[in-house]
Amino acid sequence: MNIEHIIEYVLKQGNKYPGKHSVPTERTNPSQKPLEPKSQMLIIWRGLINYLDNNLRKGVSVNIRKFGSFTFDITTELPRISQRNISPTSDLMVDRQVRKNIHKARPCFVVDRTIGQHLIRYKNKEEVTPAGS
């Protein structure tokens, strides 16, 4: 599915999706033509994508209220006995205390509860499973 097709669908369904996005927006410079609805929605979409991309590349999560969070699922691997450098001074507990852990951050999307209620029929929608404790 292409974002342009989604925008065209939303604009054609004006009775289902009412709002200011369905009328042309006046420019600050009166000599320029008003910005058409499809163009302004594409500008907003590109701005959102750039904002998400910049923040996720910095390692910062983004939360969109009543939609969800673009965040990271971090898995930690402790030092394994077979992968350690075996030396007379090497001790597994010391290695763990020195934090020779391997952290892997996987980007994921966590659905907000309000939308999650409507996604009952979609399997595996939970990106991050809550802790059991």
Largest sheet: 3 strands, antiparallel
Task: Write the H/E string, N to C.
Answer: HHEEHEH
What Rg, in angstroms, do the CA atoms define? Answer: 24 Å
Helical content (DSSP H or I, runs of 4+): 25-40%
Mean pLDDT across all residues, rounded? 80
Low-confidence region ranges: none
- What gross morphology would you assign? elongated
Strand element count: 3
* Contiguous helical run count: 4
Euclidean distance between termini CA atoms: 40 Å
Overall number of structural domains = 2
Strand content: 15-25%
Judged by helices, strands and strand pairing, the structural class is alpha+beta
Strand order of the largest sheet: 1-2-3
Would you write up a description of this structure?
The protein has 133 residues and is α+β, with helices and mostly antiparallel strands. The protein has two domains: 1-26 and 34-60, no CATH class; 61-126, no CATH class. The protein has four helices and three strands. α1 packs across α2 (37-58). The protein starts with a helix and ends in a 17-residue tail after the last helix.
Q: What are the main properties of this structure?
A:
133 residues; alpha+beta; three-stranded antiparallel β-sheet; 4 helices; 3 strands
Quick summary of this structure?
This protein has helices at residues 3-12, 37-58, 92-97, 113-116, and strands spanning 62-64, 68-77, 102-111. It is 32% helix and 17% strand. The chain has a three-stranded antiparallel sheet with strand order 1-2-3.
